[in-house]
Amino acid sequence: MTGPAEQGKRNAGSLGRTTIADGVVAKIAYLAAGDVAGVHALGSGFSRSVGELRKRVPGGGTTVTHGVKVEVGETQAAVDLDIVAEYGEVIPDVARAVREDVIAAVERMTGLEVVEVNIAVSDVKLPEEEEETEERVR
Predict the structure, then answer these.
(1) Coil, strand or helix: which one is 17?
(2) Could you read off the pLDDT tens digit of each residue along the chain, which spans 138 residues?
(3) What three-state secondary structure class fits 124?
(4) DSSP 13
(5) pTM for the whole thing?
(6) Is 10 buried (19+), middle (13-18) or exposed (0-12) by CB count in 10 A?
């Protein structure tokens, strides 16, 4: 017969199952990638436009993971990112930093092994583009 002290030593990890939804991993990857210097935005221009439109439509949702696709298995995850880089940044360096930060964040927060982070740079944000947008708003 086991006493209360012995029961407290049981491995709680073997008493149930934890599943992590794809959306959880996508949000973690989105936030980690967006914090990297040299990343202007995630998603292509089209996907960002659709995301903005969905926010304005009642009941359209407020998804913040455009530009991120993930595949999550029982112990591993793969991430695909579509980023817009800032003009003047060294794109391979930005991609390397994004990859490192996404892997670290996903593995630390979920315990999943990230087997790959594929990055597609779909655009470069030019300084003039920001000025043109501001002038149109005025």
Answers:
(1) coil
(2) 555 555 556 676 678 888 999 999 999 999 999 999 999 999 975 444 444 444 455 555 445 688 999 999 999 999 999 999 999 999 999 999 999 999 999 999 999 999 999 999 999 999 887 655 444 444
(3) strand
(4) G
(5) 0.74
(6) exposed
